Amino acid sequence: MDGWSQFVQLLFSGLTVGSIYALVALGFVITYSVTGILNLAQGDFAMLGALLCITFVNSGIPFVIAILLSVVAVMAVGGLFERLAIHPARNSSIATLIIITIGAAFVFRGIAIFIWGTQPYALRPFTGNHSLNVVGAVIQTQNLWAIALSLVSFIALYIFFNKTYIGKAVTACVVNPFAARLMGIEPRKMSLGAVAVSAGLGALAGIVIAPVSGASYDMGVMIGLKAFIAAVIGGLTNAPAAIAGAFIIGILEAFTEGYLSSGYKDAISFGLLLLVLFFMPNGIFAKMSGKRV
Amino acid sequence: MLTLNHLHVYHGHLHVLKGICLQIGKGEIVAIVGANGAGKSTLLGTIAGVYSPKAGEIIFENEPLPYGKVEQIVKKGICLVPERRQIFGDLSVKDNLLLGAYHRYRNDFQQVMRDYEHVLEVFPKLKTMLDRPGGLLSGGEQQMLAIGRGLMAKPKLLMLDEPSLGLAPLIVKEIMKLLRQLRDQFSTTILLVEQNVRAALQIADYACVLDRGEIMMQGKAVELLDDERVKKAYLGMQNKKEYNIAK
Ligand SMILES: Nc1ncnc2c1ncn2[C@@H]1O[C@H](COP(=O)(O)OP(=O)(O)OP(=O)(O)O)[C@@H](O)[C@H]1O
Ligand SMILES: [Mg+2]
């Protein structure tokens, strides 16, 4: 494999991982913007989505339906989590709420161990084991699925927030919850929807990456952390910046792994997090655009 | 249409409203004036459901209003245009206006769009800047937007908290004229809190003076305009020394 094809290979693998991080990071951003809560259980929605989908597929449910079903199921889990854990504690301090989400993450992992055990599972690729040859690099179709589905999600979210009435009402709650209430918009209802949608995005991410890197009860930890770093780069409220951050992290990781050693892969993103927190506590892109979600 | 019976409101331990009794009839413009911190905004906020009273009742169209349930109260036809405008800065002028109709857009979007056109006729200036983010408008334009957004809720009772704050006298005049028009066109009942006492009393039918949480005086607006005490305390018809003491 010559240098150029290795480069393309790594780039695609970076884009794939990046799009997974981006989906989960968007979950962070949406939940944080609407509810003001940093949901550290966000990565575990990916784990739940992947494992549920694998179970559905193994029990003979058609692939597409299994995917939809598991996304919807995880959205329901997210909604329940908001109603049972976040909503009753909404007036507590930020620290309390974050600890609640950490607790929820452990509960999700515990339930996953209980149901699926600790061994990894595999999911077959969406469209078989085909691959494309791009200038000598071998690109699996699953990588393309990951990139395409995340792009579709970004566009759908963009349209929702910028073109639909209800999406604008959500934005209004984010921009000025007091005025929104005076108009009859209920920020609390929005909070339920926001957590559910974030959970759905996470589930989708987990399902899409499962054929590439497998699924296990603790897969959400790393995905969640990387996505969190991406979201922090955007100051937690800037969706485009979080997406950009996610792709930067994904690509940096892929190149570090390919050109240096896989041992440095995680060090790179945590180094990035430290840099961002030290020098730009509001996020690299936060200043560039005040636009949220 | 709206009756307040012995309303007591606290902010923490602070007794802000001390037994307010007030009656407002349909289609009236009622002005509330008073010094800073008298409790004017608290009064409007309590009617709108932002604050809950400790005692007393609020009766709207012969039914007691639920306390502290902002979203439900909007549906009943009461809309507050709050202090400092509070528009949605990131959203366009058009979206700001349309979101004003949030509580009723599901039932009849056609009607909402008709009302939207109507509001733009009332504020032709906004028509020229529909796509601009609300935050980039000038103070006066934002005030028009805030009032327009309030109208989009199609309230039976429109409450405005210091709509003239920070505006040039000419624009204040324009806005007061508008409120009069609104009452005449939409037969909206208007409850107006104003620092600009003269402007408020000129368009109001009734007025009351709020002083440290109590209604000190109320009556026909024209009578209050002529009242010696009001003149002294709020219309600046006195020498400087007395004015300072009155404050
Ligand atoms: N949310 C709040 N929490 C605690 N105290 C408050 C709150 N809002 C108002 N207050 C206090 O209640 C009193 C009345 O405030 P309010 O805003 O109703 O006065 P106002 O008549 O509207 O004054 P202004 O003319 O300055 O707007 C003030 O002393 C104020 O400090
Ligand atoms: Mg006030």
TrEMBL record, chain A:
<feature type="transmembrane region" description="Helical">
    <location>
        <begin position="144"/>
        <end position="161"/>
    </location>
</feature>
<feature type="transmembrane region" description="Helical">
    <location>
        <begin position="191"/>
        <end position="215"/>
    </location>
</feature>
<feature type="transmembrane region" description="Helical">
    <location>
        <begin position="93"/>
        <end position="116"/>
    </location>
</feature>
<keyword id="KW-0812">Transmembrane</keyword>
<keyword id="KW-0472">Membrane</keyword>
<keyword id="KW-1003">Cell membrane</keyword>
<keyword id="KW-0813">Transport</keyword>
<feature type="transmembrane region" description="Helical">
    <location>
        <begin position="267"/>
        <end position="286"/>
    </location>
</feature>
<dbReference type="GO" id="GO:0006865">
    <property type="term" value="P:amino acid transport"/>
</dbReference>
<dbReference type="InterPro" id="IPR001851">
    <property type="entry name" value="ABC_transp_permease"/>
</dbReference>
<keyword id="KW-0029">Amino-acid transport</keyword>
<dbReference type="GO" id="GO:0005886">
    <property type="term" value="C:plasma membrane"/>
</dbReference>
<keyword id="KW-1133">Transmembrane helix</keyword>
<dbReference type="Pfam" id="PF02653">
    <property type="entry name" value="BPD_transp_2"/>
</dbReference>
<dbReference type="InterPro" id="IPR052157">
    <property type="entry name" value="BCAA_transport_permease"/>
</dbReference>
<comment type="similarity">
    <text>Belongs to the binding-protein-dependent transport system permease family. LivHM subfamily.</text>
</comment>
<feature type="transmembrane region" description="Helical">
    <location>
        <begin position="63"/>
        <end position="81"/>
    </location>
</feature>
<feature type="transmembrane region" description="Helical">
    <location>
        <begin position="227"/>
        <end position="255"/>
    </location>
</feature>
<dbReference type="GO" id="GO:0022857">
    <property type="term" value="F:transmembrane transporter activity"/>
</dbReference>
<protein>
    <recommendedName>
        <fullName>Branched-chain amino acid ABC transporter permease</fullName>
    </recommendedName>
</protein>
<feature type="transmembrane region" description="Helical">
    <location>
        <begin position="6"/>
        <end position="30"/>
    </location>
</feature>
Automatic annotation (TrEMBL), chain B:
<dbReference type="GO" id="GO:0015658">
    <property type="term" value="F:branched-chain amino acid transmembrane transporter activity"/>
</dbReference>
<keyword id="KW-0067">ATP-binding</keyword>
<keyword id="KW-0813">Transport</keyword>
<dbReference type="Pfam" id="PF00005">
    <property type="entry name" value="ABC_tran"/>
</dbReference>
<dbReference type="GO" id="GO:0005524">
    <property type="term" value="F:ATP binding"/>
</dbReference>
<keyword id="KW-0547">Nucleotide-binding</keyword>
<feature type="domain" description="ABC transporter">
    <location>
        <begin position="2"/>
        <end position="237"/>
    </location>
</feature>
<dbReference type="GO" id="GO:0015807">
    <property type="term" value="P:L-amino acid transport"/>
</dbReference>
<comment type="similarity">
    <text>Belongs to the ABC transporter superfamily.</text>
</comment>
<dbReference type="InterPro" id="IPR003593">
    <property type="entry name" value="AAA+_ATPase"/>
</dbReference>
<dbReference type="InterPro" id="IPR003439">
    <property type="entry name" value="ABC_transporter-like_ATP-bd"/>
</dbReference>
<dbReference type="GO" id="GO:0016887">
    <property type="term" value="F:ATP hydrolysis activity"/>
</dbReference>
<dbReference type="InterPro" id="IPR017871">
    <property type="entry name" value="ABC_transporter-like_CS"/>
</dbReference>
<dbReference type="InterPro" id="IPR052156">
    <property type="entry name" value="BCAA_Transport_ATP-bd_LivF"/>
</dbReference>
<keyword id="KW-0029">Amino-acid transport</keyword>
<dbReference type="InterPro" id="IPR027417">
    <property type="entry name" value="P-loop_NTPase"/>
</dbReference>
<protein>
    <recommendedName>
        <fullName>ABC transporter domain-containing protein</fullName>
    </recommendedName>
</protein>
